[in-house]
Design goal:
- It holds the Pfam family FCD.
- The protein is mainly alpha-helical and about 240 residues long.
- The chain has 2 domains: about 70 residues, Winged helix-like DNA-binding domain superfamily/Winged helix DNA-binding domain (Arc Repressor Mutant, subunit A); about 150 residues, Four Helix Bundle (Hemerythrin (Met), subunit A), CATH 1.20.120.530.
- About 70% of the residues lie in helices and about 0% in strands.
- It is built from 11 helices and 2 strands; from the N terminus they run H-H-H-E-E-H-H-H-H-H-H-H-H.
- It has a two-stranded antiparallel sheet.
- Helix 5 packs antiparallel against helix 8 and helix 6 packs antiparallel against helix 7.
């Protein structure tokens, strides 16, 4: 027996949208918790007073938004996990950036704004666990045998950790999405120059940035961050 909330019948205009709106509200207000299965299509159709075809259209709509996840062809859908929703958000933002042809300088300015705001908080009252993550990423970057691909991954992990150290979940979420949007630019930047030549400088700049945060110097961290990103991407 499912514990999912009962739904009211809907009007005949834009029926599947009304159905989707009710289920979306239940997911967002936690009436349907993450991972909880929806009732079968037949039962949902009875609750809403609509056809099973309408239910399927509403569920497809919500799945496309990342709010529902499928457990197989015959199993009822379930409310998506927060991680799945974040992945869909990142994917959507990346596509929008590409479709609108957002320039690299604009993306860098957005990233600087996000990281500067976060580092002001991180320098004042950091979340220690995330600072530890940044230190671990820096240690990985310092390894002589690290490949360009691995270096890219830990470079991003370093910056994401410093933003997360602010304790502001909204900033951390947007940072994760933005870093995916500029991934291609970063890979191109690494390919265009000698990795062996730029790696020591990039590592030292990250080391200085982490020291500024550890010492509570938000102003210095912001200055170092802008110089680091602008010089690396040539903006």
């Amino acid at each position: 027996m499912t514990s999912a909330p009962r739904f009211r019948t809907v009007s005949r205009s834009a029926i599947y949208v009304d159905v989707a709106d009710q289920i979306r509200d239940a997911i967002l207000n936690r009436s349907l918790s993450s991972g909880e299965r929806l009732p079968p299509e037949r039962e949902l159709a009875q609750q809403f007073g609509v056809s099973r075809a309408t239910i399927r259209e509403a569920l497809r709509h919500l799945q496309a938004q990342g709010l529902l996840a499928s457990r197989g062809r015959t199993s009822p859908m379930q409310a998506a996990s927060p991680d799945a929703a974040v992945d869909r958000f990142c994917e959507a933002l990346t596509h929008v950036v590409q479709l609108r042809n957002v320039s690299l300088p604009d993306l860098i300015e957005l990233r600087v704004a996000i990281e500067t705001a976060a580092m002001t908080r991180s320098a004042a009252a950091p979340v220690s666990a995330h600072l530890d993550e940044a230190r671990a990423a820096l240690e990985a970057m310092e390894r002589e045998q690290i490949s360009p691909t691995e270096f890219h991954d830990v470079d991003i992990a370093f910056h994401v950790a410093l933003v997360a150290a602010s304790g502001n979940q909204a900033l951390a979420l947007v940072m994760v999405a933005v870093k995916d949007s500029i991934r291609l630019h970063l890979e191109e930047a690494l390919q265009a120059r000698s990795f062996a030549a730029i790696r020591p400088r990039v590592v030292e700049e990250h080391r200085a940035l982490l020291r500024a945060i550890e010492r509570g110097n938000a102003k210095s961290a912001a200055t170092l961050l802008r110089a680091h990103l602008s010089e690396f991407y040539g903006t």
